[in-house]
Amino acid sequence: MKKIIIITIVVFFISKLCIAQTATISGYVRDYSTGDNIIGTVVYDKITKKGTTTNNYGFYSLTLKTGSKARITASYVGYHNRSRQFLLTKDTIINFSMRSSGELENVIVTAERSVHQTPEISVLTIPMKDIKLIPSMSGEADVLKVFQLMPGVQSGQEGSSALYVRGGSPDQNLFLIDDVPLYYVNHLGGFVSVFDDNAINSMNLIKGGFPARYGGRLSSVIDMRMKNGNLKEMKGEIKTGLVATKIFIEGPLLKNKTSFMFSARRSNIDLFSRLISKINDDGFTGAYTFYDIYGKIHHKFSDKNSIFISTYSGRDKITLNHKEDSNRNGPFAIEEPIQYSYESQFHTKWGNQMAAFRWNHLFGNKLFSNLSVSYLKFYYNTENEYLKKESTSDMLLEQIYNTYNSGVNDLTAKLDFDYYPSSSHKIKFGVNSIKHLFKPGISKFNESSDTVETDTTFGNLNINTYEINAYIEDEISLGRVVSCNIGLFASYYNTNDTYYQSYQPRVAFNFKISNNFSIKSAYSKIEQNLHLLTNSSTGIPTDIWLPTSKELKPQRSDQYVINTTYTSSNKKIEISIEGFYKEMSNLIDFKEGASYQLDNSDWHNIIETGGFGRNYGLEFLLQRKTGKTTGWIAYTLSKSEKRFENINSGNYFPSTFDRRHDIAIVINHKLTENISLSANWVYTSGSMMTLALSNYNTMTLYPPLNYPDTPTLNDVNGINIVNAHYYGGRNNFRLPAYHRLDLSVTFEKEKTKGIRTWQVGLYNAYFQKNIFFLYYKNNGKDLYKFTLFPIIPSISYSFRF
Amino acid sequence: MNEETSITFLAQIATGNYAVPIVALKSISHEYYMFQKSLIRHTFNQGMGSVDATNMFLVSNPNDLYSNIQNGLGIFAGYSESHFELEEIEQ
């Protein structure tokens, strides 16, 4: 009895002493079967109702008052919840190992700390396994095309995976692959993106209310994390479809310490095209190929230190060869006929190469750090060679060779910290420095024959620029109702002749009205020190990346967002309505009528600067995330306009992809254990185009060289009649609405050594003849439409082991 | 504008029993120059040709023709013309 009294008193005193004290629970959340980090897991104390989420490396830290019971629960969509209950007396490390709930089970995730609790706004996340089910044109899961089905994200030209986020152009998207920004993310004119779904652990898209840790692009952030590799056992997958064949393998090099991941993909298209050119045998051979290779090595020294080495390499290549022997007579008819052979070769290739080294270090249990050093190279090369030889002697008579090279090289050093001082603050801060080397286009021309000898190099000079950025943000919870994220991104940018500095405030507020309903609002300012000069929207990379300079000021944007979200009480259905207003300034465009083909000169002379854009709209999203039938309905009502002083007489004109209405319905249904069905339907307003309202005859002394037929009015004076168009404004005509239905069926079957999957798909299932482009016939009297994508079936086979 | 300008150009002219070649030099007004400049772009960007790669990828946004007429189309411009006969140089 005495003992009990003493213990009670001691416990009482200890608990008294500890009332003002806190202890930190920290650790990692990992997948049970692979050991890979789970990003964005909610870690939550059921008793005090305080919680946090895991960062990009699966780490969390939660500081609570000591002396009371804690019931810490980790929860993530698609996984069983894990809970630990204990008396919190001192700093504790808990690593959660989460078991996947299995695709077949119908698990309702009870994430108690929901979307209503964080000020996070305008973030789109789609689980990777859903992306695999959604039908695609190529039979190859494409993450970017799935994002195009979400509200506020619009597609450009049909088939392209370019993203137009809230009226922004594709160059305003920040594509981060393990923290390294990529420049060009499309293959094959944009029909396939470089992101290989096998290599990706998580991916989300932010379209507004940007947290301060991101900067440098105006319209969106696509934050992609590569898989670290399986720490427990070897796993792999092989897959082949009509467009590409790929292989994926991951596993431990040292169990529970070191893991690797390797994923490679190569196009199949050239196999067909090479065959066709073999059969035709007209001297022409051509091929198009692309590949992507992702690799990663992860080593865990301890829970406090781990390192990661990530690499990516991707390339597209177009080759066209022509060979011809001719029996043509020589230049002088009297002499013996000489036989010549002609050879021409054309290569174009472009791609990204990336390597990153990262080191995670944990200081105590509240401060997490990540140091990364990375290198990125983007290149675009064209090579053209023409040879004329004498057939019998193989003597070289004439040689013309030219190349065109452009690209960007980036060297980045980056230090980031996550600091969790208490349960109501989550601070992120960091600094990074980037050295860019821009090559805006160098042409080499070399000609040698018996009469001419030329060797010239011309083009734009390389430009070195440096930038230093620093940021700090704090996610603060102010009581049960209000939480906010306040941050600042500061940037200093140095180019050849000038420098720019900017302070970009970022604020987001959340008002949790009830457990099911919240209202959020955000403001963000962003500057972008890069401009993209692009000739068209088709995704052919004649794109030139231009850094800011004295004449070319950084692009700026101010965006305001307001959002309300409602979740049904059984957490199955989530509805959100979001409004946005975005202003952009210092945009660039081609001078009226200018293009690469006509203006082969310094890019400064062909661009119009100082453009202003305004975009506003309303987005609606209804999602069903769990159950046998999942999917979403998205609707966007928006308007996007631009204004340039010297374009369209200084008046506002609609952006090319100003889509007033944009609807997408996506449904995935699990029919039986082994069969899933998926369908999506899109309906969008047509894009904008400049079409002539009327035409008239005009006269000139000098008919343009490219003009087909010029009737001559008066032979003596040489006056020619030219047919002129009257447009009356840029993008004055809206094309008919675009709509399409895609279907796919996935059959899975467990075999003794793994799981095999057949996927059959149908793109444009009801054969809607959508417009790819319009063209004139009959000397401008008739307008015709060209449909590029009819009904396209696809099939793919994969085996997972 | 009485500055003297020299222009060097090369022309391949067949020799033989042809008439003496004449070079016609036309001076045009500034408006005409602007018009002609915009005409080249205008016709190029009309996309009047057949269905080919040029139509798909290379044509930029069409532009209205230069005009100096208020509430109307076309230009008011002038030009003058002078002729020179080419002298043959003995080689």
Description of the structure:
The complex is a heterodimer of chains A (801) and B (91). Chain A has 801 residues and is mainly β. Chain A folds into three domains: 2-111, Carboxypeptidase-like, regulatory domain (Immunoglobulin-like, Sandwich); 124-691 and 730-800, TonB-dependent receptor, beta-barrel domain (Maltoporin, Chain A), CATH 2.40.170; 697-726, no CATH class. Chain A is 5% helix and 58% strand. Chain A has four helices and 50 strands. Chain A has a 22-stranded antiparallel barrel. A five-stranded mixed β-sheet of chain A has the order 9-16-17-12-13, with no helix packed on it. The model of chain A is unreliable at 11-19, 104-112, 328-335, 536-541 and 712-716 (pLDDT under 50). By secondary structure, chain B is α+β, with helices and mostly antiparallel strands. Chain B has a domain at 28-80. Chain A binds chain B through residues 535-536, 538, 540, 542, 590, 592-598, 690, 692, 696, 698, 700-702, 704, 706-708, 722-728, 730-731, 773, 775-776, 779-780, 786, and chain B through 26, 28, 35-36, 38-51, 55-65, 73-74, 79.
Question: What are the main properties of this structure?
Answer:
heterodimer, A: 801 residues, mainly beta, Immunoglobulin-like, Maltoporin, Chain A, 22-stranded antiparallel β-barrel, 5-stranded mixed β-sheet, 4 helices, 5% helix, 58% strand, globular, B: 91 residues, alpha+beta, two-stranded antiparallel ribbon, 2 strands, 24% helix
Q: Topology of this structure?
A:
The complex is a heterodimer of chains A (801) and B (91).
Chain A: H1 2-18, E1 22-31, E2 42-45, E3 50-53, E4 59-65, E5 69-75, E6 82-87, E7 92-93, E8 96-98, E9 123-125, H2 128-133, H3 143-147, E10 153-155, E11 163-165, E12 173-177, E13 180-182, E14 186-187, E15 192-193, E16 200-206, E17 220-226, E18 235-241, E19 244-254, E20 258-267, H4 269-280, E21 284-300, E22 305-326, E23 340-363, E24 367-390, E25 396-422, E26 425-449, E27 453-459, E28 463-478, E29 482-494, E30 499-514, E31 517-528, E32 530-533, E33 544-547, E34 555-567, E35 573-590, E36 607-624, E37 629-643, E38 653-654, E39 661-670, E40 675-684, E41 688-689, E42 694-700, E43 712-714, E44 719-726, E45 733-734, E46 738-750, E47 755-763, E48 773-777, E49 782-786, E50 792-800
Parallel strand pairs in A: 1-7, 1-8, 12-17
Antiparallel strand pairs in A: 1-4, 2-3, 2-5, 5-6, 9-16, 10-11, 12-13, 14-15, 16-17, 18-19, 18-50, 19-20, 20-21, 21-22, 22-23, 23-24, 24-25, 25-26, 26-27, 26-28, 28-29, 29-30, 30-31, 31-34, 32-33, 34-35, 35-36, 36-37, 37-38, 37-39, 39-40, 40-46, 41-45, 42-44, 43-44, 46-47, 47-50, 48-49
Chain B: E1 22-28, H1 30-45, H2 53-58, E2 79-85
Antiparallel strand pairs in B: 1-2
